[in-house]
Design goal:
heterodimer; A: 6-stranded antiparallel beta sheet; 24 strands
Chain lengths: 820, 134
Amino acid sequence: MVENFEGEHLLFGQLGQLSVYTAFVFALIAAIAFFISSFSNNELNQKLWRRAGYVAFFIQGAAILSIVVNLYIIIHSHYFEYYYAWQHSSKALPMNYLLSCFWEGQEGSFLLWMFWTSVLGIVLIFTLKEFQAGVLSVFAVVQGFLSSMLLGTYIFGYKVGSTPFALLRHEMGNAPIFQRADYLSFIQDGNGLNPLLQNYWMVIHPPILFLGFASTLVPFSFALSGLMNRKFTFWTKPVMPWALFSAAILGTGIMMGGAWAYEALTFGGYWAWDPVENASLVPWLTLIAGVHTALVFNKTGRSLRMTYVFFLLTFILILYSTFLTRSGILGDTSVHAFTDLGMSGQLVFYMAGLSIPAIILLLVYWRRIPSIKKEENLLSREFWIFIGSLIFLLSSLHIAFNTSLPVWNKVFGTNLAVPSDAVMFYNKVQLWAGVFIALLSASALYLKFKSSNAMQFRNRILLLLGITIPLTAVIAIAGKFDLVSNIILLFAAIFGVIANLYYFFIVLSGNWKLSGAAVAHLGFALTLIGILISSAKKETISFNSAGVNFGKEFSEAAQRANMLLYKNVPVKMDKYTVTYVGDSVSEPNYYYKVNYEVFDSATGQIKDRFTLFPNAQINPKMGLIANPDTRHYLTKDLYTHVTSVPDKTKQQASAQEEFKPYFLTKGDTIFTNNSYVILEDIARITTSKKVEIQPGDLIVGADLLVKTLEGQSFSAQPLFHIQGNRANLIDDKLSELGLTFRLNKIIPEENKIELHVAQTEPEPDFIVMTAIVFPYINVLWLGIIITILGFVISMVRTLQNRRSAQQITAKRPVAERVTL
Amino acid sequence: MKKIHIIGLVMIAVAIGFIITLASDYSQYETFSSAEGETKKDFHIVGTLVKEKDQYYDPITNPNYFTFYLQDKNGDQCKVVFNGTKPQDFDRSEQIVLTGKMSGSDFQASHILMKCPSKYKIDELEVTEYKSNS
């Protein structure tokens, strides 16, 4: 057994691992200190323990920063002796993707989560004026749980967490290579980043999403500490800006996931009701419900119990979604490939560890949580917000229940699955949630808290209906909507748009400060319109005319999803004349250049012309990974992606056998079946994309000009590469002509080269492509952005209110202030 | 009756409605033998590709027609027709989950989910060898 290995950089791993332990231990110390402080009756003790908690929390924050820095150094310096760097990165990756490597692995994504939790905790320490200790005790406990996910140590024989600082030779200790002290010199490169994740969404989406995850802990901590310390109502006002922040960030994260799927993956849309998407949507829905019931409590003193339920549930659901996506249990049902790192038991343990105390506390104190016995007025805003929050709850239960089918199957031994058309399956229930929420979110604003003027309400709603109904009719007829359910949704969404616009401009007179709710609700209604039109009216236009008709039992859609495009043969697709004109390689991507032209039917003039480059990575390890390319118009998107290409490796294999030798000097010409080839130059080469040049290597290239009988010109450059005492022959291939050139030998004495040429029947070059038109999809993106803007406006408003409220309290004598 | 009770009843009714509509929609994981004769409902079938038997995909004749044989967990083999392109990494798949219905003796797949030995499921090291120049 080798004791000392050469070339390893163990310091960073040791520092990193030490920081992992520090973060874990100090998070727990902080939790205990805050806990004692929050239960202490003595003011001095409260203060001392709280101070101790601060110090411990800052230390764990510094430790997390140190983990981040050390891990980043390891990835950035390509220290492949570390498993994480070897598994997730490679030398060829540009800087921004090195960041992606950082959070590609489970350990890195937990680290990102912890990092944000630390940041938010520090902001809480500096901004929260009252009841800090209780809130922070919950916060620090959860931070401890998260930190333990990185421990990677055995506690009582059970492996807790998985460390990002594990060494390659420990993880893969059985390989014989690790018997050698100089093993590192053989490991020249890492495994690389999954090509699917090599795009800019992977750089920006995870940080936002995990900030969203981390931020849901704040409302949870407020609620749980409210129960623990029996201060049932203190937190509902300070929680508002945090809950709104969380709603905005988590919403942005989910939207980015959808945009990523749409822009870069081949789901054929932005939302597929995939379990991984659902898992982050469900907590967002309960969070939104919680924001509303908390508002109701602050205004009227009602709905506090539901507020507790929603905020506690939200974070538990975040943990549950982490469990679903990390445990490998979704295996058969999701396109997102996740494997189990053996941490699912731990996640279940934490989920139980947080939810069981929360449920028990909630049940024990249920009757003591303040509520108002008298019934709500039917014409009051709080009543309808309450109904709306129940619809959010039902909607999220429906999604959560069905997403959890693999879990039920495992627990109850059943074998149920969501039907093949999952989108239809979810849409047909969720559509009604959308209808009710749109109607409620529009009309509830016209009601006042506690009681409203019935006459005024009725008149305004009648006015709005008077605008909405004709508008709906016009759009439904113009857009040829035929399903009743879709028309009802269209009506509800248009009502939402009109009512919220009217509310903003007429009732609020355009006052931005108060407009948060109206803006968010307007955004929601627009989002619904965007979803409805882009999905109900989405049209696959890549009709395959070459296809055989298989009879009526196969739907038309199935037959025409994919279209064959021969190179340089224009095909009519909808109103576009589409021509595949060739591919180009920019490692690791193949770009397929497809020209689109639109002709005016009367004059024959070109009205519109553009080129799309749907690309694919033809990865020897993973096969074809298609990336769509989309033409964006204001009113629609034309979305295309390649679904199949000819297998060029097979052609190469058959071409290898029939090489014919030619002896040529500069300027000589040879003839092939379809072209003539001129040797233009023989020259030494110093840079080449095809081969990595080491110092001392000698490379000679033959510059060939190939002219076809039709007059097309091509160039080719086979290479002769001398490395030490070995020669590599690097062929060049013109697949369009079926020609392969090999520079077999250089004869310096005669100034000649021996060129080998192989010719095969040129294979037809083609691509198979899908093209889908999504009309008015921009309305969807606009709607989501407006919704998030609404959250931000409300957040700013609640922050301003808090500040002015605090200034008033500050003026009161110190003795009156509530201190902890 | 208080409003809260009415709301409660409505919620329960909606929930029951959900369950009834859902129960008839769910698809089941089946095998070819248990799915046989049932042509109306969708099934999920988990199995492996039969590599010895012929696959057919010729994009030049029809890019939306692909057939292959699948062996289910009981060992039964069945021809599968899929109206789409042949997934590029198909031959390397370790496990396939099909969704679709029986159509005569064939299985008409509407959806294919493959599991391939991922590059990222690490089981081998890539080692490059460097020779000296002597």
